[in-house]
Amino acid sequence: MTSSASPIKLIVGLGNPGAEYAATRHNAGFWWVDQLARDGGATLRHENKFHGQVGRARLSGHEVWLLQPMTFMNRSGLSVVSLAQFYRVLPHEILVVHDELDIPPGQIKLKQGGGNGGHNGLKDIQAHLSTPNFWRLRVGIGHPGDRAQVAAYVLKPPRMEEQTLIDETLDRAHQIVPQLLSGDLGGAMQKLHTDEARRRPHKAAPAP
């Protein structure tokens, strides 16, 4: 893992602007940034030069920029790179929070770099930053099973039981904020994934 000693200076929540999208699966990143803003006493305000809602929060004794791009998902990179360049935030100091089809509701994972998995927000951020070397907090939303249904699936609200599970994962992610902002990214990853592993049902041992 690279750059694990660098604290996160910018947390980006991905989603689409507008009331019609607010409760949809694709806006899971917005949900967590909204929670962080409340916890950190920050007010997210629209900043034209950053093409998004921006706030400065104080969490666990550290200050961090919060950003919700208002460009729609497939142009998220414009907003991210605008703020990052202005405040001289490096890619490995950025955490992008996004919905993840390949993880079921109730699970959440942290990683640095990697592919975009077809996620248009990640794809555009990677293109604008010219590197995949930013951090990702992957919020499980599950997969509809048919690739042809993905676009409709992410733009619909989760079922009630799914929403409960997603909300619980976002609450658990708050426990690693102190490590994210102090630069202990390895510790944050270990804590989150250890806690997640404990919550997954264990397969029964085969009968002798």
Task: Supply the key terms.
208 residues; Rossmann fold; alpha/beta; 7 strands; RNA-binding; seven-stranded mixed sheet; hydrolase; tRNA-binding; peptidyl-tRNA hydrolase activity
Report on the architecture of this protein.
By secondary structure, the chain is α/β, with parallel strands linked by helices. The protein has one domain: Rossmann fold (3-Layer(aba) Sandwich), CATH 3.40.50. About 35% of the residues lie in helices and about 20% in strands. The chain is built from seven helices and seven strands. Strands 2-3-4-1-5-7-6 form a seven-stranded mixed sheet, sandwiched between helices. Helix 2 runs parallel beside helix 3. It is globular, with a radius of gyration of 17 Å. The termini are far apart. The C terminus is likely disordered.
Question: What's the helix and strand layout?
Answer:
Elements lengths: L9 E4 L14 H12 L5 E3 L4 E8 L2 E8 L6 H11 L7 E7 L7 E5 L7 H10 L5 E6 L9 H5 L5 H14 L3 H6 L2 H15 L9
Parallel strand pairs: 1-4, 1-5, 5-7
Antiparallel strand pairs: 2-3, 3-4, 6-7
Subunit structure: Monomer.
GO molecular function: peptidyl-tRNA hydrolase activity; tRNA binding
Organism: Chitiniphilus eburneus
